[in-house]
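Entry for the shared binder. Reason: the reviewer on the internal report wants the predicted structure included alongside the sequence.
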Amino acid sequence: MSQVKQIAQYGQSIWIDTIQTSFIESGELQSLISDDGVVGLTSNPAIFEKAIAKTNEYDARLKAAGTQDPEAAFVSVAVDDIQAACAKLLPVYAQTNGLDGWVSLEVSPTLAHDTDNTVKEALALHAAIDRPNAMIKVPGTEAGISAFEQLTAAGISVNVTLLFSVERYAKIAAAYIRGLETRLAQGESIEHIASVASFFISRVDAKIDSALPEGHPLAGQLGIANAKVAYGHYQNLFNSPQWQRLAASGARPQRLLWASTGTKNPALPQSYYVDALIGPDTVNTVPPATLDAYRSEGQPANRLENGLADAHEMLAALSSLDIDLSDVTNTLESEGVAQFETAYANLIQAVRDKLGAL
């Protein structure tokens, strides 16, 4: 059995972080589902920009979109890809009773600080895709907290992205519960709603390691410790009496999804973050290169539930090194939004260039 496929026996779902028309149509996605047990897919503007700008796979559909508005043309072809991926993963969605089989499409990163328009665009994208296993990606900014709560109350399954701090994750998890409670109070079903909280890992290490003395033993450890503390909060919250009341009405826990699990430090094996964070009731959205490496490097085992006390101690030790974790995570969020905005601008420019050439 594939090393990747073995991860499932520890309760973790592996999703792939990529999308492209040929990836879906060539059978490559289906092979990952069959051979490696991949059970979901996430996309982002940078992935779409690479696919559209560097291939001609989208040219005919961009031309057929019948618009010179690059954003509208992009949404048209993106929805096509998301629908096609949803079709490939629909059997997984059915077999897992809606636990997995999800495909994510992101709202425009330019709306990261705009609650009302995030909700408006998320509803429009969800309606355009019109598939039961489509998730809409919303950034976990302060504005995103309210947007996420409103979308949950409206019955939309959401992938909350760009989470770096345990404190922000706790707010997102609480918003999920409030959204479900609102929907239930309105007499609406909550059984079909799913959500993941995308908690970023390697970016935390990259930022903190650059501030540590050379050779410090905490190097490469804080991203994992931060994730373990978040997981401890998840376990407490989704085993609480408040949650059990919702679960009795069919609610699903919002799983933590480990994002940014490709290594940025060349001294670390590519399997480093995947191996460290395997544990029950979680998701890891893995870049293709990391997944490829895991087949030969991976050593699957449940490590997520080990060392929670040590993780708290590691995070506490940062203050003695004059490193403020809140400052680090706030900076990472700001940089993440800016990077996503740049990627989106590059994507729209690539579509604009294609439309001009066509």
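Summary line for the report: The first helix runs from residue 3 to 6.
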